[in-house]
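TICKET: design request
STATUS: open
ATTACHED STRUCTURE:
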């Protein structure tokens, strides 16, 4: 892979915010020419596929300002500095759904938008949900509503583009594949 490597000559920080850092890098390309790369630095995120005892998937609906609309998604959130992904997963599950768990299974991780961002998303699954006696308060600026759907209902939401983000589409595809494997 070294033959495609770009060497950073200079980095200019544009913005350092609560969630992302923006920078522009001057790079030398493999052919020796110069170019600029606009980059988003992100601490990473975690998403959870929570399955209830009656085999429904717990989703959250929330408004997404960049899209100017609400989306239905699996619970997810940003990694805090130094925080292990499993801890983030449980924290977000509790804050967003009112459930907790003592058992998480790692599914996969992937880069969300490698053309311009370094965000790494970790996906976990649990079917060992316990309802919290005292719900945990979420972020002050986050407003979510939970809903529970069967896998068939979730697939229908994908077709209708009510579920329309990569991590949630991945989760549904993963569950669909598990269902097909288990029926063989």
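STATUS: resolved
RESOLUTION: sequence designed for all positions
ATTACHED SEQUENCE:
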């Amino acid at each position: 892979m070294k033959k495609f490597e770009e060497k950073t000559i200079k980095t200019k920080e544009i913005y350092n915010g609560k969630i992302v850092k923006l920078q522009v890098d001057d790079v030398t390309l493999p052919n020796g020419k110069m170019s600029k790369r606009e980059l988003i630095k992100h601490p990473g995120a975690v998403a959870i596929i929570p399955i209830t005892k009656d085999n429904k998937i717990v989703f959250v609906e929330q408004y997404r300002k960049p899209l100017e609309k609400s989306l239905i998604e699996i619970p997810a959130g940003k990694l805090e500095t130094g925080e292990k992904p499993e801890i983030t997963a449980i924290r977000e599950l509790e804050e967003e759904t009112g459930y907790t768990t003592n058992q998480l299974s790692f599914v996969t991780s992937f880069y969300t938008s490698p053309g311009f961002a370094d965000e790494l998303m970790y996906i976990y699954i649990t079917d060992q949900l316990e309802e919290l006696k005292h719900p945990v308060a979420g972020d002050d600026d986050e407003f979510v509503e939970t809903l529970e759907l069967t896998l068939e209902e979730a697939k229908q939401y994908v077709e209708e583009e009510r579920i329309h983000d990569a991590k949630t589409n991945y989760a549904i595809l993963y569950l669909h594949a598990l269902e097909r494997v288990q029926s063989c």
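CLOSING REMARK: Residues 95 and 137 are 6 Å apart (CA to CA). Residues 2-41 form one domain.
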